[in-house]
Design a protein that fits this description.
The structure is a single chain. The protein is α/β, with parallel strands linked by helices. The chain has two domains: about 1-170, Rossmann fold (3-Layer(aba) Sandwich); about 175-365, Dehydroquinate synthase-like, alpha domain, CATH 1.20.1090.10. It contains twelve helices and eleven strands. It has helices at about 45-60, 80-90, 105-120, 130-140, 175-195, 195-210, 215-235, 250-260, 265-280, 290-300, 310-320, 350-355; strands spanning about 1-5, 15-20, 35-45, 60-70, 100-105, 125-130, 145-150, 150-160, 165, 330-335, 340-345. It has a seven-stranded mixed beta sheet, with helices on both faces. Strands 7-8 form a two-stranded antiparallel sheet. Helix 2 packs across helix 3, helix 4 (about 130-140) runs parallel beside helix 7 (about 215-235) and helix 9 (about 265-280) packs across helix 12. The chain is globular and about 60 Å long. The two termini are about 35 Å apart.
């Protein structure tokens, strides 16, 4: 097992990474509440695969182990679905000795964390991510949120889990499209922080796609170490942590503009990184060869490198509600060289030029990636 520590003083916690953790009761011994309640929050896709196995491992550590099953999909990351968690907590008379377990991908993790931050003004929660994207990114660092029709992840809280359990064996049940979506966040971490890791990815991308457990374990651990270092320095995204949003300003616009759920988050980030790298070139920050290198790797991961045509007004509208926007100025995470991110505003003419240069063919506009 690999353990990565998130150093946040009294709120520090571990990320445990290995195959088979889900079925081992000792994995959860450190967060046991013998007279408490465990509520496993999951979705209709993940529940039949892993819920009973997690519940069995929790039985020795809690007086009650309950389950809340939500619908699956980004389109359900809403107030209405969040309220289902609160309803289950209240109906089961869950008190402050309740721990929530987020079993699923990024949507489940974000909503469970937000529910934990809010219920009785805060109860503990544990992340048990079952997708590559969640294991390398969304389960780490305490960002919790729901979507709004006018903006992605605009309503939420910073609230750290007590533990993250990344069981690599769950990645074998991922559809290929979901695996590729996770690789977008893996590539992102390398592009902003670690050129050696970028070299490693170019050599091991086929092994990752083939779900080689050793390669997956290395990728997850390296991403978590990068994110742990950033989060320890800037927990609430006052400055440095924003660099983790490389590709996300464009990506969130794609997700919202196409309708949540039509493009997976990682697919939108893949295309978004290509656009952000192109914009970096146009602003004289990044050599064209580096942008081309990054685009090749993104394509090898099975991700889109072209964006849908939302129309200039729609692109601008969605980018205006990005969390990095200040005083009406849209700010982007750009690259002043691979491994060297910078946060800055960009002229909208250059932004639109990057988008125009990377639009999907008309025949592909209505298709998902």
């Amino acid at each position: 097992m690999t353990t990565v520590r998130i150093a946040l003083d009294s709120r520090a916690y571990d990320i445990r990474i290995a195959a088979g953790l889900l079925d081992n009761p000792s994995t959860f011994a450190s967060i046991a509440v013998p007279k408490g309640t465990a509520l496993v929050v999951t979705n209709t896709t993940v529940a039949p695969l892993y819920a009973a196995r997690l519940e069995q491992s929790l039985q020795p550590h809690f007086a009650r182990v309950l389950r809340c099953t939500l619908p699956d999909g980004e389109e359900y990351k809403t107030w209405e679905t969040l309220n289902q968690i609160f309803t289950d907590l209240l109906r089961q008379q869950c008190d402050r000795k309740t721990t929530l377990f987020a079993l699923g991908g990024g949507v489940i993790g974000d909503m469970t964390g937000f529910a934990a931050a809010s219920y009785m003004r805060g109860v503990p929660f544990v992340q048990v991510p079952t997708t590559l994207l969640a294991q390398v990114d969304s389960s780490v660092g305490g960002k919790t949120a729901i979507n709004h029709p006018l903006g992605k992840n605009m309503i939420g809280a910073f609230y750290q889990p007590r533990l993250v359990v990344a069981d690599l064996s769950t990645l074998h049940s991922l559809p290929p499209r979901e695996l590729s979506a996770g690789l977008a966040e893996v590539i992102k971490h390398a592009a902003i922080a670690d050129l050696d890791f970028l070299d490693w990815l170019e050599s091991h991308i086929d092994a990752l796609i083939a779900r080689d457990v050793t390669a997956l374990g290395e990728a997850v651990a390296r991403c978590c170490r990068i994110k742990a270092d950033v989060v320890a320095q800037d927990e609430t995204e006052a400055g440095l942590r924003a660099v983790l949003n490389f590709g996300h300003t464009f990506g969130h616009a794609i997700e919202g503009g196409m309708g949540y759920g039509n493009w997976l988050h990682g697919e939108a980030v893949g295309a978004g990184m290509v656009l952000a790298a192109d914009l970096s070139v146009r602003l004289g920050l990044l050599p064209p060869a580096d942008a081309e290198r990054l685009a090749r790797l993104i394509a090898r991961a099975g991700l889109p490198v072209r964006a849908p045509d939302l129309g200039a007004a729609r692109w601008a509208e969605w980018m205006q509600v990005d969390k990095k926007t200040e005083g009406g100025a849209v700010r982007f995470v750009l690259l002043q060289g691979l491994g060297r991110p910078v946060l800055r505003a960009a002229p909208m003419a250059e932004v639109q030029a990057s988008i125009a240069a990377h639009l999907q063919p008309v025949s592909a506009q209505t298709e998902t990636a």
